[in-house]
Amino acid sequence: MPLIANPRRIFPLFIFAATCLMAGCKPAPPPPPPPQAMPVQVAPVTLSPVPRSDTYVATIKSRRSATMQPQVEGNLVNIFVKSGDLVRAGQVLMRIDPLKQMATVQSQQGTQAQKKAVYDYSQIQFERQRKLFEDGVVSRDAYDQATQAYQNAKADYESNAALTDTQKQQLAYYDIRAPFTGVVGDIPVHLGDYVSTTTLLTTVDENADLEAYIYIPTERAGLVRQGLPVEILDTAGKTLVKSRISFLSPQVDNGLQSILAKAEIPRTADLLRNQQLVNARVTWSTTPAPVVPVLAVSLIGGQTFVYLAAQKGDGYIAHQVPVMLGETVGNTYPVISGLKPGDKVITSGLQFLQEGAPVKPLG
């Protein structure tokens, strides 16, 4: 008896065959190849000396700075300099009208000449009476009177001569002179102004012997000491000059609750001026700490990250790690947390990296 195929089995096979004939049967595509590893530069995290420091606002002050005020009163008749001029020691800066004082000196000189004539006459009389007394011609009383007159005339003349010298010295005060070689500051007065002993005429500053005045908070009193390194910085953080603490005040400033420290500025620091505000970085100590190159750091949403070349299987992948860093030291950041010595950080192609991307370390 012949076998008859089950039509319920044959029909699905027919449908499948028809579908293959209409669409064309193709084998499944192979899986895509793994992404090629990107070559990147790497650098190991190493231990380097890292300074522990704080930065404070400091004021540059000259150790030779003079405020020019007159010692006499009168009207200004000459101003021989302008602000910013370099002047020599003893150079006349301004002149107060000296005519009244000159008249006083001349009058005093006339009085002195009169008293000199009386003194000379009294001296001659004294010598004459002395000889006559020794020869027994005049009495002792006459001789004593001549002696007294001579001594009175001499004392009167010497007193007047001293007063004349004082008036002459007073005349010199009408010329305002530079006390030392330096630079003239602001001149707030004008020709014809009446000035007194309280009037500020100008200032003269020597821009050679400078010091940085640094006020250290009392919380740092246990750390601050003479000899600590100090760096004077500009507004961009660039070091202008290096120095050391040379003076510490024995007292605390009650108003600021701080300790005054001074650092001498070398004469080669031509960029600094008297009364200039700068930043002073005081280094308390230097200890070894992990450092990472600046090129390896990226900032995302206010947080700093680095990419590590982390080993996975036979290759490496980029692994993003958040880190806490200190202030830059040269071309590196000191690592506070997030890395350890020996970690390999990626320093190139950071903008093309993402977590887990395969990389090929080059160095």
Question: What report would you give on this structure?
Answer:
The chain has 363 residues and is α+β, with helices and mostly antiparallel strands. It has 4 domains: 38-48 and 289-361, conserved putative lor/sdh protein from methanococcus maripaludis s2 fold; 54-64 and 210-286, Elongation Factor Tu (Ef-tu), domain 3; 73-96 and 174-205, OB fold (Dihydrolipoamide Acetyltransferase, E2P) (Beta Barrel); 98-173, Helix Hairpins (Orthogonal Bundle), CATH 1.10.287. It has helices at 7-23, 99-134, 140-172; strands at 38-40, 42-44, 46-62, 65-68, 74-79, 86-87, 92-96, 175-177, 182-184, 194-195, 202-205, 210-217, 229-233, 239-253, 258-265, 277-293, 298-300, 303-312, 315-322, 324-325, 332-337, 344-346, 358-361. The longest helix has 36 residues, at 99-134. 20% of the residues are buried.
